[in-house]
Amino acid sequence: MTPLHFTTAGESHGPALVAVLEGVPAGLPLLAEHVDADLARRQQGYGRGRRMQIETDRAEFLSGVRAGETVGSPIAMLVRNSDWKNWQDVMDPAPREGDPDPRRRSLTRVRPGHADLTGVLKYDRADARDILERASARETTMRVAAGAICRRLLDELGVRIGSHVVHLGGVDVEVAELPPDVNAVADASAVRVLDPSAEAEIVGRIDEAKRAGNTLGGIVEVVATGLPVGLGSHVSWDRKLDGRLGQAMLSIPAVKGVEIGLGFEAARRRGSDVHDEIALAPGRERSGNVRRLTNRAGGLEGGMTNGEPLLVRVAMKPISTLMRPLQTIDVRSAEPAAAAAERSDVTAVPAMGVIAEAMAAFVLAQAVLEKFGGDSLGELRRNVEGYVAHVRQRLPDAVEPA
Ligand code: EPS
């Protein structure tokens, strides 16, 4: 078993969502506010629906944290759904005997692109609500909660993770140079872009899509800095960090593609325009006193971090609930029908960036704990420092004389 893992549970309109994160070392300073800050970031973004006005996500620790510090045991967290009060009759776990309409708000006109149809066939359900309540991106709340704790751990080791939107609804966002604190700039934008001049155009596209009863997808870039060289491994398929990041990102609802560094563009270029030349770089201790003259590889070579910033691009399709619905069938009547139009978002691309950060934080924290181990933060820190002390003297000529 990997040293760090988590699971989530909860339906979108059930009473609450939960997560259990196991493997966090003891002694990590941790407050609910650390988690709540990321939960709030995930709720932002122009283009979301009314649900986000109903919810104010807050984490309650049920275990694993005492007096503001982790104790090394599994961390269980709860986030209550404020909307539950409006859905108790629909989502009641009890059979509601005597209720004349126990299956109210059922969804049978299954939405193209959603889990609805395949879910009802596979799980033998009459009502796609039994599927969509869990397929809902509401579940990502708890990924962000677990990821926030991983971020806290990485932060102690000098690793920072941010994200920004690089494409939304047909608009490309040009970024000449990344700012030192990506999130400080991105979070100040309603659509989490680094170039403020792109914001108005994107907002216009979202308004246009909303008027047309349509939805929009987009692409975000996740950036992680401060990573030591050598997380992940080249030796086996399931230890390659790019593979693990790909799996984690592709598990986010509506995500259809992942690129590392140049990604698909690398396939179109010649080798000399793809590979990053290597130079000595005294003082870059975590990278072994070397650097790449470019970072087209996005910080990963051979399935391992190379000490350059990690760059992962994540593509999200447009949300599959359309207010001007597509053609489908009704699974109750077996007749052609227009798909159901449940309340939803026009786009959730800005929020997806925050979720992708959380998934990156989890995968990176897992890789850190695999490489360095440690039951306490102090032990982990000593192990990291010992390794960095080793790699920094591997190329002694690169180190400036004292
Ligand atoms: C979602 C539909 C909307 C979104 C929801 C995801 O919720 P509702 O069905 O209550 O209107 O707001 O996202 C969240 C609740 C969230 O926390 O992100 C869907 O069908 O996936």
Quick gist of this model?
By secondary structure, this protein is of the alpha+beta class. The chain is built from 11 helices and 17 strands.
Observed structural traits:
Chorismate synthase, AroC fold, 402 residues, alpha+beta, binds ligand EPS
How would you sum up this structure, described in words?
With 402 residues, the protein is of the alpha+beta class. The chain has a domain at 105-140 and 158-392: Chorismate synthase, AroC fold (4-Layer Sandwich), CATH 3.60.150. Helix content is 31%, strand content 19%. The strands form six sheets. Strands 8-7-9-15-10 form a five-stranded antiparallel sheet. A four-stranded antiparallel sheet has the order 1-2-6-3. β16 (327-330) and β17 (335-338) form a beta hairpin. The longest helix is centred in the C-terminal third of the chain and has 24 residues, at 349-372. The model has no long low-confidence stretch (mean pLDDT 96). Bound molecules: ligand EPS. Ligand EPS is lined by residues 12, 49, 51-52, 83, 136-138, 141, 321, 342-345.
| Record field, number of beta strands | 17
From the alpha carbons, calculate the radius of gyration and give it in angstroms.
23 Å
Structure ligands: ligand EPS
Helix percent reads 25-40%
List segments where confidence is low: pLDDT < 50 over at least 5 consecutive residues. Answer: none
CATH class of the domain at 105-140 and 158-392: Alpha Beta
Major beta sheet, strand line-up = 8-7-9-15-10
